[in-house]
Amino acid sequence: MTTTAAPVITGRAAARATALSKVYGEGETRVVALDQVSVEFHRGEFTAIMGPSGSGKSTLMHCMAGLDTVSGGSTTIGDTELVGLKDKDLTRLRRDHVGFVFQAFNLLPTLTALENITLPMDIAGRKPDKEWLDRVIETVGLSGRLSHRPSQLSGGQQQRVACARALAGRPEIVFADEPTGNLDSRSGAEILAFLRNSVRELGQTVVMVTHDPVAASYADRVVFLADGRIVDELDRPTADGVLDRMRRFDAKGRTS
Ligand SMILES: Nc1ncnc2c1ncn2[C@@H]1O[C@H](COP(=O)(O)OP(=O)(O)OP(=O)(O)O)[C@@H](O)[C@H]1O
Ligand SMILES: [Mg+2]
User: Fold this and answer.
1) Ligand 2 center to residue 235 CA distance, Å?
2) pTM score, two decimals?
3) What would the pLDDT profile of 196-226 be if each residue is shown by its tens digit?
4) What region holds the ABC transporter domain (predicted)?
């Protein structure tokens, strides 16, 4: 039994895509979901990905997290190139170095909050780092709810369990696909504050897909996708600034 995963990060990028392409289907059903995307997610930074429905946000995340295969280009987590990795190594990389948060919380109903949080490590046969786990649980504000099952928790609390689960293994990077999409604005704000704190206070790296300019304003940087390409970036975003960029894309889309 190993207690910690070997770190794979040495440089500034926690994850990097280079000329990454993803094509679904063939012939008439062919869809270019990602068209030569090059992007870097810096260590210790909170990045938001925005763009219209169908622009490739989830595909980018899935390819960079090793959940989906790519059609061209390369993508790395830390120093590890994902393209060409054997299934076994990819599974291990995902398990030990990547955290996920989905729009649907994906908790196991028969397990308590704490059991859900430590499940990936239990499966991997890794012992949780107690001090780290305590910090994650404290940051996520779940200390009083650890023995509750998902059905006994609110939506916001369930998503906080999912966030704690993603961070429990101290991954190189956390990918969150619309983590506040199913939450009311107050619960959503709690999740966003948690994700931001996990970056600021715990030094984590978080990449989040969102449609909400307010959610994006919690990030250090926003990357905009359209038609499978990165079309813009914004540092230290405000909700108004993000909205303004989105309006510009809309106007362009209508006129071109
Ligand atoms: N498994 C698949 N098979 C075929 N086409 C797919 C598949 N998954 C995604 N696509 C297509 O790829 C494109 C990008 O999809 P993707 O899910 O990445 O968009 P998105 O930006 O996440 O959209 P949304 O905001 O609606 O979640 C879309 O045109 C979609 O129809
Ligand atoms: Mg999506």
Assistant:
1) 22
2) 0.90
3) 999 998 899 999 999 999 999 999 999 999 9
4) 15-252
